[in-house]
Specification:
The complex is a heterodimer. Chain A is an alpha/beta fold. Chain A is built from eleven helices and seven strands. In chain A, helix 1 packs antiparallel against helix 10, helix 4 crosses helix 11 and helix 5 runs parallel beside helix 6. The longest helix of chain A is centred in the N-terminal third of the chain and has 26 residues. Classes of the chains: A alpha/beta, B alpha/beta. At the A-B interface, helix 5 and helix 6 of A face helix 6, helix 7 and helix 8 of B.
């Protein structure tokens, strides 16, 4: 019984398997990925200017995953992830101003300046954080799925984790319960090959992370996480499986982060050449743009317009985040207890 | 002659009901034979013979309540023992009557001597409340009900579950086993397996699952068999639940609580008998 099956063949670039998307939809994905890229570049810059205190983990290189998965989500589905979370928030539709202002710790930030990069939350957008403890979001996402089942809602929780978190004990505990109770959860393992400075090969005895649920009979698939249409195909199948009562599913997204683990990581554990090679040959945004061009879907003007619009949004968010007021010191004492 | 003593069937048992004898006087018993059924406030259990011999006398009648642990309940005649004369048998009826009555006697009569100890132990009597509550006034005409802390916890949970569909109980042995310490006794029957959920013995994982359900606006009661085991889950309790409200600027609706049945007992190590009062996780509404 080969429950943990190796990934499907690469989708035909012209017609992604089982899904036909309009040109407008395809450009929306492109725009969403580009927004994350430019937003993160600007966040890196603000960090360098000393405007972002605390932590800052950039999503550059991994954009196709959050955007691709979000594009197949249904209304009411939930998203939860670890601390490399800005991309998921933007993909979920959170306001770039509120996200950037949270990074700079300002009062109109998403968490009123008290959570920072790793702890934003937007129930309206279906985004449940933003979690700083490696792997902690995995049982929580499983609990969100439990709530869907408890209430009889036809929704799925997309629970993201990295290759580092995939070794955490609580991940296995959660997977066991998800399979036991057939909970509607899709575990999306973003394998960017390095858990901070430790490569997958140096950290885990089983490097095929799509097999993580094999001990609980959870099906898994390996996916090219740099190809948004491959992400969509696999994501849609996994979500359908979970939504229709089949229980959890594991997707291993093979991806890469271009920047260091955090802003203070000089990334000495890999070579410059390795990073350049991925950028040149597998970049999710360049790659998809070429595909759109090959399909004859857009001319130069359309790409330029998107570029300009995204730049404007990001510049506006950065200016807002730079100039917005800091929280009142009294905020230290709010949101600590609630009336029971 | 060998006396068979009322056994303690759990570390907390002090007395029980001798529900049924499965032997009678004159029977020969072997080690391992079931000789009686004993009821405690948690369960009914069979008692097996340890020594071998012929039943000389049953010292406590079937149905006797409040039989203290270590009270002789039967007498065995071994191979070498002579058949006893009547004094022992003659004494037996006296003892039969005395044991249950002494234990099950009217508590009011013994109140002066036992009240302080009971108040410490149960903490729920009016007298205890009067000593510890900042407001010693009992409303005029208020009636008090005597019940165990165990049942009070169960009743509180049941009340909340009847009131609010979003409240459910999950944890180790809470459903089919009826609670490791019998706190959830009867809840599975009333609320069904959707709302009374047995979990694997994986505290870290199921605590996080409870926190996630709370994120979605449900109100889970997550029971750890003892709070010591919740140490495994301290990250979920503190980092994922307790801090969430502050870190999200009040946008996370997390609300959960944990039940903490733990007591100090002789020969119980700190790993399984330490009581820690956790700060209540932030809750809303």
């Amino acid at each position: 019984m080969a429950r943990a099956s190796k990934a499907a063949p690469k989708p035909d670039p012209k017609t992604a398997e089982g899904m036909t998307a309009s040109p407008d939809e395809q450009f929306a994905w492109y725009r969403s990925m580009l927004l994350i890229r430019r937003f993160e570049e600007r966040a890196g810059q603000l960090y360098g200017m000393g405007l972002i205190g605390g932590f800052c983990h950039l999503y550059i290189g991994q954009e196709a995953i959050a955007v691709g998965m979000q594009s197949i989500a249904h209304s009411g589905d939930q998203v939860i992830t670890g601390y490399r979370d800005h991309g998921h928030m933007l993909a979920a539709g959170m306001d770039p101003r509120a996200v950037m202002a949270e990074l700079t710790g300002r009062a109109p930030g998403s968490a009123r300046g008290k959570g920072g990069s790793m702890h934003m939350f937007d129930v309206q957008a279906g985004f449940y954080g933003g979690h700083g403890i490696v792997g902690a979001q995995v049982p929580i996402g499983t609990g969100l799925a439990l709530a869907n089942k408890y209430r009889g809602k036809p929704n799925v929780c997309f629970t993201y984790l990295g290759d580092g978190a995939a070794n955490q004990g609580q991940v296995f505990e959660a997977m066991n319960m998800a399979a036991l109770w057939k909970l509607p959860v899709v575990y999306v393992i973003e394998n960017n090959q390095y858990a901070m400075g430790t490569s997958v090969e140096r950290a885990t005895a089983e490097t095929h992370l799509y097999r993580r649920g094999a001990a609980f009979n959870i099906e898994g698939a390996e996916v090219d996480g740099m190809d948004i249409e491959a992400v969509r195909d696999a994501g849609a199948r996994a979500a359908e499986h979970a939504r229709s009562g089949g229980g959890p599913f594991v997707l291993e997204m093979k991806t890469y982060r271009y920047r260091g683990h955090s802003m203070s990581d000089p990334a000495k554990y890999r070579t410059r050449e390795e990073v350049d090679e991925v950028r040149k040959t597998r970049d999710p945004i360049d790659h998809f743009r070429e595909r759109l061009e090959a399909r004859g879907l857009g001319d130069e003007t359309r790409f330029k317009d998107i570029d300009a619009e995204v730049k404007k949004i990001v510049a506006d968010a950065a200016e807002f985040a730079r100039t917005a007021p800091e929280p009142d010191p009294r905020e230290l004492y709010t949101d600590v207890y609630a009336e029971a | 002659m060998t006396d068979i003593l009322m056994p303690a069937l759990s570390p907390t048992m002090e007395e029980g009901t001798l529900a049924k004898w499965t032997i009678k006087e004159g029977d020969r018993v072997r080690s391992g034979d079931v000789i009686a059924e004993i009821e405690t406030d948690k369960a009914t259990m069979e008692v097996e013979a340890v020594d071998e011999g012929v039943v000389e006398a049953l010292l406590v009648p079937a149905g006797a309540e409040g039989v203290k642990v270590n009270t002789p309940i039967a007498r065995l005649r071994g191979e070498g023992d002579a058949r006893s004369a009547s004094p022992a048998a003659a004494n037996a009826p006296v003892q039969k009557a005395a044991a249950p009555e002494q234990a099950a006697g009217d508590p009011e009569k013994r109140a002066p001597e036992t009240e302080p100890a009971r108040a410490e132990g149960e903490g729920a009597t009016a007298a205890a409340l009067a000593r510890t509550s900042p407001d010693p006034e009992m409303p005029a005409g208020a009636k008090t009900v005597r019940l165990t802390v165990r049942d009070a916890l169960r009743d509180a949970m049941a009340e909340e579950m009847r009131r609010d569909e979003a409240v459910f109980l999950m944890g180790e042995e809470v459903a089919q086993y009826q609670g490791a310490y019998k706190i959830s006794r009867g809840l599975l029957e009333e609320f069904g397996e959707r709302r009374v959920i047995d979990t694997p013995i994986t505290e870290y994982g199921f605590a996080g699952v409870g926190v996630g359900a709370a994120f979605a606006g449900l109100r889970p009661i997550v029971e750890f068999m003892t709070f010591n085991f919740a140490m495994q889950a301290i990250d979920a309790i503190i980092n994922s639940a307790a801090k969430q409200r502050y870190m999200s600027g009040g946008r996370s609706p997390v609300r959960s609580c944990s039940a903490d049945p733990t007591a100090q007992r002789r020969a119980s190590p700190p790993s399984t008998a330490r009581t820690i009062r956790p700060g209540t996780a932030p809750s809303r509404g």
